[in-house]
Structure formats: C-alpha cells, structure tokens
Amino acid sequence: MIELISNKTVGIAVWQWFIADACNVDVLKWNVQKLILDEKLYSEYYPVIEKFYKDKISKMDAWFYWYTLADAQIKANLFEKATKSIQKGTTLAKQFSPDSVDYFNQLSAKLEKKEKI
User: What is the number of alpha carbons within 13 Å of residue 45 lying toward its C-beta?
Assistant: First the structure.
C-alpha cells in the first residue's frame, strides 16, 4: 500500500508486506534524484503506524506485529519503545515460532547501531 502524506513536506508512506497482514513501513520523500527515507516525516506519521499495530495486537498478540512495530519505532527514533517491543516479540517468537527469533536479533543490532549515532 502507498499513502500520500502532505504536511509541510510531501512524502509517501510505503507499507511493504512482511507476514500475514503485518507490513514494514517506510516514509519517503523525493530529493530531486531519488526517493529517500525522511526521519522527520516518519516521526510525524508514526502515530498512524502505532494505532494500526495496537489495534492488531489487541485482537491477536502475534510476534510479527511486535516485529513490525519495533521496526517502526526504531525508524521513528523511539528507542525505549522499540526495546520493549523487541522484548515482547522475542518472547512470543520463542514460544510460537523459534525460527523467527533471528528477526528480533537483527532488529536489536539495528537499534544498537542507531542509538550510537
């Protein structure tokens, strides 16, 4: 799904399918040559993503919702929230989909790298 975002800056939110009805979301803007990730616009759009996943989690507490929510939180620079989401998702993945724990290990590494910047 692609959604046009129009505030002070025009951008697009790209919801890319991950698993089931969970998506990784990128918020992009045009920089005259190509589409690039826009962290400021992402942070402004983040409440839409959070509401989507909170609604999903309230109906089914699945690891893949926690994974995509944590990914969004990292992109929005919400590191404390991301840490908690990674912990919750890892716990669920260990119980129901042990092969998926690696996704959370990768997110943890991404979070650690971004926190150092």
Answer: 27
